[in-house]
Amino acid sequence: MILAFVALMLAALPGLPASSADGASKLKAKTWTVKVGAQSRSGAVQTMAYGPKKVSINAGDTVHWVSNAMEPHTVSFINAAHPAVPFDFTIAYMTEATPQATISKPGQFRSSGIIAPEPDAVFPNAVKTYDLTFLKPGKYHYLCYLHGKAMSAVVVVRKAGTPYPHTQAEYNVMAKRASNSDIEHGLNLWANALGASDSHHVFVGASDMRALVNRFIPGSVVVKVGESVTFDLGANGFPVPHTITFGPPPQNPLAPAGDPTNYQGGTLSSGVLVAAPFSPGPHTFTVTFTKAGTYPYICLLHGGMGMVGQVTVQ
User: Fold this and answer.
1) Are 212 and 185 in contact (CB under 8 A)?
2) pLDDT, tens digit, for every residue of 18-72?
3) Are 181 and 209 in contact (CB under 8 A)?
4) CB 3.0-4.6 Å disulfide test: which of 57, 259, 307, 310 passes with 61?
5) How many CB atoms lie within 10 A of CB 304?
6) Beta bridge partners of 45
7) In the 8-state DSSP scheme, what is residue 184?
8) Where in the chain is the domain with CATH 2.60.40.420?
9) What number of CA atoms fall less than 13 Å from residue 239's CA on the CB side?
10) Residue among 97, 92, 105, 45 nearest 75 (CA)
């Protein structure tokens, strides 16, 4: 009885609260931001990385992914029923968001759907952000369906109340350093492709497992009537889809259209091309120009990023 009375008196003292505010704050759930992709100032170079690639959080915390580049991506916690096979627009689970806002163990399938700055004709349901709350400890690996294992990351979830190893500001610095390095790498890919190109040989982008260059290289060439230009995906070490499209877009923007052997204007498109060895082909698109003029063209998948070119025929 005396012990119970003493306990009540101590709890009532203002200097000795039963539970401190500091202790309560340690258990309060937090939200952590991870950036999805990064890009050069012009948008020409796109990186394939989450920023940062690893975050350590506590059970009950939320991760907030936000689009940070024009290149579309996904945040996808995959399983055997939803594997990371080569990206296909027609596979619904690769492009559609799952409805759950929480995840409680590794192996549960969760996906953001397409994350991009804005919806477009190819991905009309794209979203800018994605939030997921982690309920139980574990290592939760995820990747981007469009870019496969080249773009993967992990969320490490510990018990609630565990001290955090890094602040959000520290994670931001890590992400910025990594993205700057990847962008510089992409600029080197661009320079190498430009050095191997000429007026009759244009590279359709350049890429590897770190960065994408979404530009025609070079972007403008001059040829003579009767000469040809070969558009080549050979500078890509990663399966990035592109089109070479002159004139008004075809009714089916992903399918070939027109006659490339005798081009004098109007609609002409390669359809979607992917570099070898990721696609059986074709891996090049050769156009013979039989009339003088200036012929602008575009990649229908990356035109919004500035992937446009021009052939001047004299």
Assistant:
1) no
2) 333 333 335 799 999 999 999 999 999 999 999 999 999 999 999 999 999 999 9
3) no
4) 57
5) 19
6) 213
7) H
8) 27-180, 197-313
9) 18
10) 97
Q: What letter represents residue 56's amino acid?
A: S
Please, is 154 exposed, middle or buried when counting C-beta atoms within 10 Å of its C-beta (0-12, 13-18, 19+)? Answer: middle
Write the single-letter amino acid at 15: G
| Residue 218 one-letter amino acid | P
Burial class (CB in 10 A: 0-12, 13-18, 19+), 28: exposed
User: Which residue is listed with tokens 């070119």?
Assistant: 309
Joined together, the tokens standing for residue 260 give 């490339």
Region class of 186: left (phi > 0), else alpha (psi between -120 and 50), else beta: alpha
Read off the DSSP letter of residue 97: P
Residue in 160, 158, 99 with CA at minimum distance from that of residue 132: 99
Which residues is 285 bridged to in the sheet?
231
The CATH architecture one would assign to domain 197-313 is Sandwich (2.60)
The CATH code of domain 27-180 reads 2.60.40.420
Position 101: which residue type?
Answer: A
Q: Which residues contact 262 (CB under 8 A, 6 or more apart)?
A: 288, 290
For 8-32, give the DSSP string. HHHHHSTTS-SS-HHHHHHTS--EE
- From the CA atom positions of the chain, what is the Rg in Å? 26
Residue whose entry in the numeric block shows the structure tokens 């590897």: 208
**How far apart, in whole angstroms, are the C-alpha atoms of residue 95 and residue 53?**
22
* Three-class SS state of 294: strand
Whole-angstrom CA distances from 193 to 1, 234, 271 are 85, 9, 22
Interval 140-195: pLDDT, tens: 999 999 999 899 999 999 999 999 999 999 999 999 999 999 999 999 999 999 99
Report which DSSP code applies to 254: T
> DSSP strand E in 81-145: where?
102-103, 110-111, 129-134, 138-144
Which residue matches tokens 């969320």? 155
